[in-house]
Known about the structure:
The structure holds two protein chains of two kinds. By secondary structure, chain A is mainly alpha-helical. Chain A contains 19 helices and no strands. Chain A has a single domain, classed as Amino acid/polyamine transporter I. Chain A is globular and about 75 Å long. Chain B has one domain. Chain B has two helices and no strands. The two termini of chain B are 15 Å apart.
Amino acid sequence: xxSTLTDVVSRMDKLYEFDREEVRAENLHSGSKxxxxxxxxxxxxxxxxxxxxxxxxxxxxxxxLVGLAFGNLLAVLSWTLVCAPIATRVxxxxxxxxxxxxxxxxxVVYNIxxxxxxxxxxxxxxxxxxxxxxxxxxxxxPPLDAVYPNSIGWIILAFLIGTGFTTLAxxxxxxxxxxxxxxxxxxxxxxxxxxxxxxxxxGVREDLSNLWEVATxxxxxxxxxxxxxxxxxxxILFFAWFANLAMHIGLSDLALFxxxxxxxxxxxxAFGMYPGHMLAWICSGVMVAAANRAxxxxxxxxxxxxxxxxxxVLLAGWTTANPTLYRAGLALQIVTPDWPRxxxxxxAGAVTTVLACFPVFFLKLLDYVxxxxxxxxxxxxxxxxxxxxxxxxxxxxxxxxKKGWLFNRNATIxxxxxxxxxxxxxxxxxxxxxxxxxxxLISYVVLQRITDSKRx
Amino acid sequence: MKTLVKVGTILSLAVCLAAAIFRLFDLASHAGYxxxxxxxxxxxxxxxxxxxxxRR
Lengths: 456, 56
């Protein structure tokens, strides 16, 4: 068992060898590059669903605006004050930094967990694209409480789209990435265009004099749809904050910010948060209200922007599922050492396609996003504690690396223990990660202190 | 050529927005608005893809 794991670890090291070296000064990127990356990455297919779900969950307009403004501010500050300072000091990816802290064994487990999460996310994006294509074939979108597919047509559709996306990802990931960069400004424009164009159908007058009234009575009117839980200010604020929890508090974006000249480059994340996670969510809320609150992104976009809207949903799903499939494949490559890139992508694509047949992943997207961040959050807390707190308390850092441990026992206990405690917390799923983070942070420091003093 | 492609990219997005504003003020029918949107989107993709190729 141990030798198998050691073998897996050495394969993974080879795989990530290219980013083992610290980034050199001449390779650092400009601020505008960071702004572009964030602006392009955060207008995805999921935006069509998230903003629409806020309407279905009966959020009122003031709660929405205040929640999104402050939630996104907290997200930007998390990148700036938590992720970027560590990234600009260590200048390596989370993979390599976590390896020093938690040991290569736990890093493998983290990678596999990440791969599964990526597959589910890509599956949700395929399902969203399926709603656009299904429109042309009269295939109904599963109801809001659906877990399993409700028709053979939906399964065939999800399967064909999943197969298509996977094939294209195999044929040329890099070319598709360039295409995604071309699509991003247009998709964002379609969000705005669609929302503006449906305003008259909601009763907004030509002089816009009743815009606020329509927004508060016909869009974000505080009334949840049947079967949907009521959301308030805190739900929105926390959702906007944790929508990318794995990236900022979870420190996945060390990979990105290791190229930053200064930690203040974290502020460039605002270029992704406010257009993508505020404006696009507001626009999809307007569009779903005009579609009589039907959770059908394809129909919603078609009514708002015609064929261009359908194209936007399809392309948003495609261009964001593509890098997600790539990342999942990269993480899975550890168990398939000699397989070529196409074969690993094929496996990741096949898993993703099967998952896409289950509408639950896109119909419960908000809960899934919360779980995704929650599961990976303790790792961020462990790395933060090891980087900043242990040296201040005089506790030895990087013991796993120095002593050649496969698993840092304390890190493993903290990760599993935090998730168990979070599972039993008597609060809403959206709020659990925050106390969970501090539990992970404090318990890791305490356990490391105990281990250190025993050894001393 | 490069300038033409840049202008085409930005202008096509501006036309998309203008079409929606026309629709908002009831200056265009839904069919007219979606047609303009479709054509402007096609022009955008041609221009933006060319621009991206030129930058490589």
